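Protein: GMP synthase
Species: Bordetella bronchialis
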Amino acid sequence: MTAIDLPVLIIHTGDPEDPIRARHDSYAGFVRRAAGLAPEDVHIVPVFQGEPLPDPARYRAAFITGSPAMVTDREPWSEQTAQWLRHAAAQGLPMFGICYGHQLLAHALGGLVAYNPAGREVGTHMVQHLAEDPLLVDLPRPFPAQMMHLQSVIQPPPGAIVLASSALDAHQMLRMGPNIVSTQFHPEFPPEFVLDNLERNTAKYGREDMDVEALKQDVRPTPEAAGLLRRFLALHAPVPA
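Structure follows.
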């Protein structure tokens, strides 16, 4: 198969609660749409349901989704996926990890993941550039992004470049190789999904001393961050003209 024939792999690592998913989409669906890919252009593998991953050579790129799971739980499916990611990195597959995918890539390549000492980060927050990178050339400094996480990459893998940070996370965006990038923030989430999450979890977040009403007021569209997935494919896995 030529590059134009190869699909993009979406490694599906989990989903939101059923009521929220029913109103919006699966995490894999969010990624597919944000990346501008048609259903026939992707292969979604729900690894969290035990489905094995095929040979990396079958794909032109891979996205790793977010998940309600925790990387530190070392679930068998997650550790098997980490092993696959190491193999895929060695094979040169372009990969982009998001939230859980960001953490799992870091774990797979020698970094450290743990609960964020600064606590939960949720809502729309500003992301600050820390290094120059082709993916960030056209983004404002800083730029807003959607966030929803409790764990973080505490120590990036050896050789990783920290591209961006936020007030509560020093490693919001990493480049772990020439064609391997990851974000703790969610480029794929629309503001409606983030608002729904805040509404559904108002009591829980309130017990964590979070000002949920203020967070809801700050939620807004994040088109600059959303464009990262398409830009990643254009830079690292383009389809020949």
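Remarks: The chain has one domain: 8-237.
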